[in-house]
Amino acid sequence: MESSPLNTEFSQLLAPILGFLHCATPDEWLAEARKPEHLAALLVDHANCEMKAAMSAHRLVRRYCLPKDKRKLLPNLDFYKSLDALPEKGEVLGKQALTEDNRRVFDELAKNELLVKMVRLIQEELHHFEQVLEIMAARDIAYATLSASRYAGGLLRHVRTHEPAAIVDRLIIGAYIEARSCERFARLAPWLDDELARFYLSLLRSEARHYQDYLGLARDYAGRSIDDRVAFFGAREAELITSPDDQLRFHSGVPTGSH
């Protein structure tokens, strides 16, 4: 039996996510993922997922918030570590010690909702990445090379090639990735030790907000109903989650041999 159920706050937070996803995490995945011998690999994959989430959002900022000839001004993820908190009106402010190149980036960035939400998301994902590394270091788990799961690629292969359809699809995919992460953190947490359980539950709020941000941006960019595309990607996501998978990763499907 699992330990005590999530409290009311987490249950309310998860309710829209469970309604958004087309399937729950299969029990077969959970049965494998909770085994102590898989913890190191899952933590490494979790760290990779946090970094990939930050990189994906960074690519959206480069492509859709900067003119093509200015994209080189936003060089890498380190840029976001030098940003202060975002003020309410959506402008991005930097610390006084910003370099001249970084100041030029601020001058060039369009002040739009995509920028504001993606910068906040990137900062949070980078923080989560560092938190996972700290947990791994405390447990003497090396940050080793680990192959990626089929999950993200299996969704991205369906992205349309014309705009704004392409960004709408990418944003919908982002919503599904964040929603699935949130659902799996909640499913896995009761089976983990106290430190990891608290950490995974602490991620639920940000992952749930990221899912909402991505979905809201997709609707804004589309300018019309996206229900058909949301349903399409929901079905593809569920196929990846419920079909046999020869890898065990944070977003993998049913482990091969668990039937």
Automatic annotation (TrEMBL):
Cleavable signal peptide: none
Any one GO BP annotation for this protein: tRNA modification
SUPFAM superfamilies documented for this protein: Ferritin-like (SSF47240)
Cited InterPro entries: Ferritin-like, Ferritin-like_SF, tRNA-Hydrxlase_MiaE
GO MF annotation, one: tRNA 2-(methylsulfanyl)-N(6)-isopentenyladenosine(37) hydroxylase activity
Domain of life: Bacteria
Family annotation (PANTHER family): TRNA 2-(METHYLSULFANYL)-N(6)-ISOPENTENYLADENOSINE(37) HYDROXYLASE, TRNA-(MS[2]IO[6]A)-HYDROXYLASE
Protein name in the entry: tRNA-(Ms[2]io[6]A)-hydroxylase
Organism from which the protein derives: Zobellella endophytica
